[in-house]
What we know:
alpha/beta; Rossmann fold; 2 domains; six-stranded mixed sheet; 14 helices; globular
Amino acid sequence: MELCIQDLSKKYTLKTALDGITITFGGSKIHAILGENGAGKSTLVSILSGSLSPSGGKIFIDGIQTHFVSAADAMSKGIYIVRQRPVLAENLTVLQNILLGTGIFTGKKKTEKIKKQLAEIDPGIVPDEKIKNLGGNRRFYTSLAAALIYEPKCLILDEPSAFLDKEEREKLYKLLKTLAQKGMCIIVITHSRAEAAANADTVTVLNEGKLSHFYARASDSLADRNFFTEKSAQIVQQTNSGTQHKICLEISGFSCRPKNRPPVTDAGLQAYYGEICAVTSPGDSSLKTFEDALCGMEKDGLSGTVSFFSAQQKKTAIKAADLTPCFLRKNGTAVIPSDKTYRASNPSLTVAEMLSVYTKKDAEEKALDLIKDAAIEITPQQSVSDLSGGMLQRLILARELSTNPSLVIMCNPMQGLDAASQKRLCERILSLVSDKKAVILIGAEDFPLTLCSRVYTLESGILKLSFSKQAG
C-alpha cells in the first residue's frame, strides 16, 4: 500500500496541530516520524488511522482519494494502529483480548493462528496470562499481535519502543523489516533519532505542526546539524570538583535468578551523595532483572547485602531478599521505574489520584503544587492517559522528589523523551546532585555519561565498574 497525504491540516480554536502536511508513505518500507512533544505526530497518525477527522487536505490510498469516517473504516481499508497505551480488557487473558477484537471467541484454527503470531513476536508471552498481570512491553505485544492477525497493508506504531529495552527493540525492528519486505507500509513514531536512522527507510520530522525535514534516506538525518530545533541545546557539562563525597548506598554479593529472565550474578555497586552513578548495558536483558531486584520487585533467587548510609554515615544493612519498595521509601529512596505508565502510575487514574499516593488528605491541593513544580499545563481532574511520556515522567519525578529523598533511582530515564525533554531532565538531575542527593541511573541510554561520577556496565549478568572519576 502507498499512503499519500496532500496539504493535510488540523485546526482547533486556539491551536493549529497540523499545517499543510504533504508526505507519501510507500509500501515495503519503514517510515519514521520524529518531532518534539506537540509537534503534531500523534495528530497525524490519529487522522491516518481514522480516529480523528482533518480540517483540510486529501488522503490517497494507492492513488485513489479516500477519507475515513471512523477507525473501523480505516481498518476496513487495511490501516491498523498500535497505540503506545493500548486499551485492553484488564481481567481477560492475552488470547481473549485478541479474540475479542476478531469477534470470534471459539475456533481452534483461529486460536492456533494467534498463538503462532504471539510466539513470533515474543516467545516468552503466555497466551493465558491476564492483562492486569503484564508490564507495558507485553501489553504492547498483545496489541501488536491483535493488529497483525488481520494482515494489515499499513501498520502504524505509536512510540513502540517506549516500553521495550534495547534487546526487545532490536527484535521488534527485525520483525518490522521482515513485514516491510513482504510489502507492508510501516509508519513508526519515535523520539529517537538514532533509532530512526538505524532502522527506518525514510525519516519525516515535524515541528509545531509543520513538515520541518524529510529524508529519503534515513541515515542522512544523523548528518544534518539542523535536525533539531534550538530547544535541543547541549547540556552544560558538570565539572568534577575533586570533593570526596560520602557513600549513600552499597550492594555486595548481589545476585538474582528469576525463572524466566536472565540472571544477575554477584554484583557490587556503590553510590555516593552528590554524584550520579550510571548502570549501562549493551543490549543485555539482565538490566531489567537488576532494576526489579534493586527496587524490591523481584525475589526469585535473590541474595546478597544492601547497605544504606545516612548523611551522618550511620549504616543500615539488610539482606537483599528483605528489600521491598516500602523499605526503600522509609529509608529515603525515591524510585522512578522504567515502566512509568503501569508501575509508577496507571492510565485509568486521574492526575490527582496519581500524584497523591503518598498523601491521605488535601489530594487536589497537593496535585496542584506538584503540577506547578513540574511546569505542566494540566488540571488535577484530567486523566493520566492525556499525558505525553515527557509530561508523565516530570509529574512522577515531582511526586517522588516531594518526599525529600536522599537517594533517587531512575530507570531508563531518557527513553521516550524528545530532545527538549531530555535536556530538561538532565538539568533536573544535575540540580539533585547540587543538592547532595545520590542518583542512580539504571539504563543510561542517551544520557551524557560525562555527567556521571561512576559508570557500571552490566553484561551477561555481570556488573563491572567501567569508569570512576577520581578525587583530586
